[in-house]
Specification:
single chain; alpha+beta; 2 domains; about 25% strand; globular
């Protein structure tokens, strides 16, 4: 019988080979890890590099060992999976600094061990997990950061599309897929969205993110009178699952159900393209978005919390 332990790697292909099948069993709940790692794997393959070389990540140490990493190495992507007493994968995480660790459901002691031992020496800015798992991870982090502070950064709800319902009343306008010429508009609205929701990527140049989304047809523009009034974006499809986000309507165009229409139009397009599961996240502090998505057929799956760590 194998010991319970975390195994880590900087190689996204190795990670998906080990943890991918387990993650795929709960593809809706594991949407973030699956979509981000699949994008990284595809980019590495397209560049003709090993996924570790593409990420610039050396072989990670085994759980419990001293990291011996330089500051640069510690800031590179890291992935890992947790094995149960029988040696079967039963949990996973993804850390792409400066973003929080994304952690699946795991036993609370495993979450605490991950932050206190396995990831010692890495710049942990926070964690995105189920509330009780996030709290255990934060407790482990506090062991090495007694003066550290943990704050609730955001509470999120995951929704899954059940049966699509077109907005009523239907807003004016039509949907189209964004083209390369829409990259400046998309980048500007990405930046505005990040600033408005206090995203951890706020203040950064969003040009590359906009071009990447547009390159795989992942941005839908809702136009009214020939003028863009909303965008709804999606991840690449992974194992029949795709996630919508972000959805952004500039302040001057709000109040006309543009976000509902754009999201509904994008949802329909994704279903027609073969998606079996369409999901999205909302901020629980925003009752408007939670109401809009439920009206067009999205149903709650479960809640997560993002905790922010600071040295203060």
């Amino acid at each position: 019988m194998a010991a319970m332990a975390w195994q880590t790697t900087g190689d996204v292909t190795e990670f998906l080979a080990a943890a991918g099948p387990w993650l795929g069993r709960e593809r809706v709940r594991n949407t973030v890890i699956l979509s981000v790692t699949e994008t990284m794997r595809v980019h590495a393959a397209a560049a003709g590099e090993s996924s570790r070389a593409a990420a610039g990540q050396p072989q990670a140490p085994a759980a419990g060992q001293a990291t011996g990493q330089t500051a640069g190495q510690a800031s590179r992507p890291l992935f890992g999976w947790w094995s149960d007493p029988a040696g079967a994968v039963a949990g996973a995480f993804m850390h792409t600094p400066p973003f929080p660790v994304v952690l699946t459901a795991v036993p609370l002691e495993a979450a605490a061990e991950l932050s206190a031992v396995t990831m010692a020496g890495r710049p942990l800015g926070g964690v995105n997990a189920y509330p009780e798992v996030a709290a255990a991870f934060a407790d482990g982090w506090r062991h090495g950061n007694q003066a550290g502070r943990v704050d609730v950064y955001r509470r999120q709800r995951l929704y899954r599309l059940a049966e699509l319902v077109w907005p009523d009343p239907a807003p004016g306008g039509t949907a189209r897929i964004a083209r390369a010429a829409d990259a400046p508009l998309t980048a500007g609205w990405f930046a505005a969205f990040a600033d408005e929701v206090d995203d951890m990527g706020k203040g950064e140049d969003q040009s590359a993110a906009a071009r990447e989304k547009i390159s795989h047809g992942g941005v839908m523009v809702w136009e009214d009178g020939g003028r863009p009034v909303c965008i709804a974006c999606n991840t690449v499809q992974v194992g029949g699952m795709v996630r919508i986000g972000p959805v952004y309507t500039p302040p001057h165009a709000r109040g006309g159900y543009a976000s509902a229409a754009a999201t509904a139009a994008l949802s329909r397009r994704l279903l027609e393209a073969g998606a079996e599961e369409v999901v999205l996240f909302t901020d629980l502090a925003n009752p408007v978005s939670n109401s809009i998505y439920q009206r067009i057929g999205y149903r709650p799956v479960d809640d997560r919390v993002v905790l922010a760590f600071s040295a203060d």
